[in-house]
Amino acid sequence: MKLYHVDAFTDRLFAGNPAGVCILYKDIPDAQKLQIAAELKHSETAFVLLPPDNGKILLRWFTPLTEVPLCGHATLSAAHILFENDVIPQKEQIIFSTRSGILTAKKLATRIELDFPQIDLSPCANNSALNSALGVTPLFVAKNDALYFIEIASALQLRKLKPDFSALQSIIPGEFILTAVSDDPQYDFISRFFAPAIGIPEDPVTGSAHCYLAPYWSGKLGKKKMTAHQASPRGGTVECELVANKRLKLRGSAVTFYETDIF
Description:
Number of strands: 18
Helix content: 10-25%
CATH topology of the largest domain: Diaminopimelate Epimerase, Chain A, domain 1
Structural class: alpha+beta
Order of helices and strands: EEHEEEHEEEEHEEHHEEEHEEEE
Strand content: 35-45%
CATH class of the largest domain: Alpha Beta
Number of helices: 6
Distance between the termini: 6 Å
CATH superfamily of the largest domain: Diaminopimelate Epimerase, Chain A, domain 1
Number of domains: 2
CATH architecture of the largest domain: Roll
Radius of gyration: 18 Å
């Protein structure tokens, strides 16, 4: 099978979020997918099963520890490889069949546009253990079954955060989005994403986190279209646009680092 390393949500190598993309023409056991993901040690590795079935391409995502239901940067990476290698003509739309339903990808001039869901959150009380592990005083806290969402007052503080990952691993649910209004006029808001319990201490650029971030900041800023920066050490840019039917357009670039054959 072909294996690709792609840097997503960036237009240059060694930035953005690295993902593995495995192109399969015959499916392999899930245990083997997990072994490959663990060996690669990317936050996610995408497994793309070809040829399409009734126009839909099966797409799944694995961290080094588990399968996940939704991943933005590995979807962008998979679409980038399919377009770059002319598996799908660049004028056509890619339709992915995933655990989160149908997701689509469209090639723009220098970027790829993904169609993802908007995801709701429920406001909740502060969690003192979480605040201590992160070293923050929240302005707003919300959660759902998958994660905690926390707004803090300072973009500078967000960039300088050094969480206690051992403490975070004991807090359920085990994924954490931290966000603040941007202090850089290029961006509307910034964020960071931590998920040590599923093998991702810090994710460099988390497309799926913007399914929560974009609706939240749209309500605060009064905008449907926003530019976001994920302030990890690698950094990356995600353009977000809220559209009808609780859907969200995520736009970004991707760059191939290498390709190889495995097995």
